[in-house]
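Structure in, sequence out. Go:
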């Protein structure tokens, strides 16, 4: 296996700066696109005449399709060139953006989101894999931190930009703003992107792709549909059963294939398994908030879209600024104590979000959210890097695909679960106070998830580069 442990020599000689600029620009629009819609959801609800449970599908479908695409991306990375894959993904994303911009109704808008998500689902794991191939192990924490700084700038400006745009222009302007960035990135990538990843030409196993799509898709659809249909509805139950059975079949098949589409043996590495579970729990808490806070502020407290965006902005800025810092701290001290401190902050601040009243101030939401995002920043990048550092180089594409798949599943489940809790626990007869009760219940449950994550963080050991089970 030694011949596979070293990244391709071409990657070692490559000029990293233009390559990273192209990759990060692609990831930037993918993430900006995910956070742009948050503050615009109430406007889309009014314009297209849909309710909360329906409109949250614009977020859930993005994570659903992401979750379906990401497992297949590990196969794509080994099958196609870096350039070809990146350009295809960005083109898919661009076409989806155009469809969203001109969508005459909700179903067209949803279809555009599906295409956007298909592109984004390839871009994120591809970029992480390339970063891990071009940086040595002792510099990966800092590299992921710098990447995190730029990527976190997207959610930092997303809600505020979105709020400002939907106050002054139709919500479609959100997609027209993204489109030029996508076109420029495709043009630049065409000229400067080099091939980094090693092609091993795995065979196309059609059954595996079908099982992966039905398995991950079935589970994600089931959890997401529970938001509007309820957990006992036939569609939800059938989709969860089909998803579970086909996913189990998919996993067994991968373990028996010589060249699996997604390598489940990455879970033999304990730290990788633990940090992936941790990342899922934290992401669930983070992504649910991005959907619930704008709905709470605009529909229950009467704030404008701009104000709800501004309330989320300090937290996103802090998260962005902290990423390079936590990257360096990780390279120095490992992930254990960073995670424990970060999740402790997350636990306290999440429970502080579970006591909202009709008198809750803008300042309270902004300050508590800022501390909450500080906690999340101390966890996300370090645990991802700690987990991937445990894997031999030939398993890194599978590790990044698995990590991203699990996180997207957690995001879709988290969003659907928290929105379901919010709507099911609202007490319509009590007006605004009754609606806010639903929000408080959803944050209380998010707080419980955070406590589970805190317990898991104590089990992280030897996560510093060069120590422990690193191959």
């Amino acid at each position: 296996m030694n011949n596979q442990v070293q990244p391709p020599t071409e990657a070692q000689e490559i000029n990293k700066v233009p390559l990273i600029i192209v990759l990060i620009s692609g990831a930037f629009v993918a993430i900006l696109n995910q956070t742009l819609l948050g503050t615009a959801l109430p406007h889309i609800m009014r314009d297209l005449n849909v309710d909360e449970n329906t409109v949250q599908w614009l977020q859930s479908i993005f994570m659903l399709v992401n979750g379906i695409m990401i497992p297949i991306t590990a196969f794509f990375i080994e099958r196609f060139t870096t350039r070809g894959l990146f350009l295809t993904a960005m083109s898919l994303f661009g076409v989806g953006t155009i469809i969203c911009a001109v969508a005459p109704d909700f179903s067209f808008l949803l279809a555009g989101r599906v295409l956007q998500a298909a592109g984004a689902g390839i871009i994120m794991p591809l970029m992480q894999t390339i970063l891990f191939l071009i940086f040595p192990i002792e510099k990966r924490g800092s590299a992921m931190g710098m990447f995190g700084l730029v990527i976190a700038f997207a959610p930092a400006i997303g809600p505020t930009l979105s709020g400002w745009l939907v106050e002054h222009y139709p919500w479609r302007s959100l997609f027209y703003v993204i489109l030029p960035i996508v076109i420029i990135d495709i043009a630049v990538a065409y000229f400067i992107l080099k091939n980094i990843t090693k092609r091993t030409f795995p065979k196309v196993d059609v059954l595996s792709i079908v099982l992966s799509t039905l398995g991950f898709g079935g589970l994600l659809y089931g959890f997401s549909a529970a938001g509007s249909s309820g957990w006992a509805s036939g569609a939800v139950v059938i989709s969860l059963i089909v998803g579970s059975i086909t996913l189990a079949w998919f996993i067994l098949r991968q373990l028996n294939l010589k060249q699996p589409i997604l390598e489940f043996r990455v879970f033999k590495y304990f730290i990788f398994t633990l940090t992936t579970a941790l990342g899922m729990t934290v992401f669930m808490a983070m992504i649910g908030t991005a959907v619930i806070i704008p709905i709470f502020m605009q529909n229950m407290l009467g704030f404008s879209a701009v104000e709800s965006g501004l309330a989320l902005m300090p937290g996103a800025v802090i998260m962005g600024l902290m990423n390079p810092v936590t990257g360096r701290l990780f390279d120095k001290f490992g992930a254990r104590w960073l995670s424990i401190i970060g999740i402790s902050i997350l636990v306290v601040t999440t429970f502080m979000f579970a006591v909202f009243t009709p008198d809750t101030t803008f300042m309270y939401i902004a300050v508590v959210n800022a501390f909450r995002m500080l906690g999340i920043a101390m966890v996300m990048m370090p645990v991802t890097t700690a987990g991937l550092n445990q894997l031999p180089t030939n398993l890194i594409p599978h590790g990044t695909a698995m990590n991203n798949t699990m996180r997207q599943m957690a995001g879709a489940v988290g969003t659907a679960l928290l929105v379901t809790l919010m709507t099911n626990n609202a007490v319509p007869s009590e007006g605004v106070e009754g609606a806010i009760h639903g929000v408080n219940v959803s944050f209380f449950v998010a707080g419980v998830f955070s406590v589970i994550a805190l317990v898991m963080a104590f089990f992280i050991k030897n996560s510093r580069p060069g120590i422990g089970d690193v191959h």
